[in-house]
């Protein structure tokens, strides 16, 4: 079975060192590889195939449909994501909305397909169903929204900023274990994320929640919403940063990103946070430079992300999962 890529490398090059920042702020290597098995992509694109499919899934009750009028207290969280309560319940749900067009409907169907594959994993944000916007409360959006579990602590970056001083090493090992476990789950279903970073990993009730598999979030928006968009390249497989290589992101690239995130969990801040994100830094990363180990970090933890994960080809997530679990126990 061929892997499902949630991204595909584009033809990216650097025209000059001066344009380097612009290069990273306009990366377009997280684009959808179509999941359709139909041979004529143009025919699908110009048809109502995905719209009809989505309507069929709802009619046959293979997807739970929620009446939008049953949602209360709708509030925007960020971009196209909102939170709301349902009926008389006090618990928040997340509504991930899409524009009303055929391309967006295709993204909805594809994202539902991926959620259905991995939804049983405890560290995947739960997919509850779908709703259709019937009001002007959510401006410029007048079609379907995914109904998802709401992550009460926001992104991993936000969680570490707000709660890092409260975390002991058992907590950090546990977060690393959950991250490794959920990425391993993706790989077992031949799903390659390619865009793991602290801005799109969520935390709910002190637990990692993976969502936004890249199907409906434009990478340009993510760079725009980041305080320092160029810093996101610190999570990317260094082999991909080398424009001279025709390198496609793969499972090992996800493993590298997990290693960077493990370091961030140990430190509480983004990699190379106090350095200028320029060509020199990227070149040093390509040549093997990594962040310095945080004082007090257990040797076992350092060995996991530095000695193993950063070498990519020498380690697999299944082994990482077992090792971290053994340290916690």
TrEMBL record:
It comes from the Eukaryota. The keyword ATP-binding applies. GO terms for molecular function: ATP binding; protein serine/threonine kinase activity. PROSITE patterns: PROTEIN_KINASE_DOM (PS50011). This is Kinase-like domain-containing protein. The keyword Nucleus does not apply. Keywords: ATP-binding, Kinase, Nucleotide-binding, Transferase. Coiled coil: none annotated. Residues 71-329 form the Protein kinase domain. It holds the Pfam family PK_Tyr_Ser-Thr.
């Amino acid at each position: 079975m061929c892997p499902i890529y949630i991204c595909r490398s584009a033809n990216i090059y650097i025209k000059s060192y001066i344009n380097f920042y612009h290069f990273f702020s306009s990366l377009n290597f997280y684009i959808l590889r179509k999941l359709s098995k139909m041979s004529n992509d143009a025919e699908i694109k110009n048809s109502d195939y995905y719209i009809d499919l989505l309507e069929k899934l709802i009619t046959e009750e293979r997807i739970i449909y929620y009446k939008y009028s049953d949602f209360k207290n709708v509030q925007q969280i960020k971009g196209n994501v909102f939170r709301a309560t349902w009926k008389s319940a006090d618990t928040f749900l997340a509504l991930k909305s899409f524009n009303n067009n055929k391309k967006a409907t295709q993204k909805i169907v594809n994202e539902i397909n991926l959620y259905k594959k991995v939804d049983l994993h405890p560290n995947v944000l739960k997919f509850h169903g779908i709703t259709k916007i019937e009001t002007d409360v959510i401006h410029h959006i007048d079609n379907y929204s995914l109904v998802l579990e709401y992550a009460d602590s926001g992104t991993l970056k936000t969680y570490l900023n707000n709660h890092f001083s409260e975390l002991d090493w058992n907590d950090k090992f546990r977060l690393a274990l959950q991250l490794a476990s959920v990425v391993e789950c993706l790989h077992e279903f031949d799903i390659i994320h390619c865009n793991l970073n602290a801005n799109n990993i969520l935390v709910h009730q002190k637990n990692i929640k993976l969502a936004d598999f890249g199907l409906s979030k434009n990478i340009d928006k993510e760079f725009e919403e980041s305080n320092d968009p160029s810093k996101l390249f610190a999570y990317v497989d260094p082999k991909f940063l080398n424009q001279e290589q025709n390198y496609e992101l793969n499972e090992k690239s996800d493993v590298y990103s997990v290693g960077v995130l493990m370091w961030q969990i140990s430190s509480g801040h983004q990699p190379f946070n106090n350095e200028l994100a320029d060509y020199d830094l990227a070149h040093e990363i390509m040549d093997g430079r990594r962040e310095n180990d945080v004082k007090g970090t257990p040797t076992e933890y350092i060995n996991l992300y530095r000695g193993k994960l950063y070498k990519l080809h020498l380690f697999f997530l299944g082994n990482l999962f077992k090792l971290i679990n053994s340290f916690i126990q």
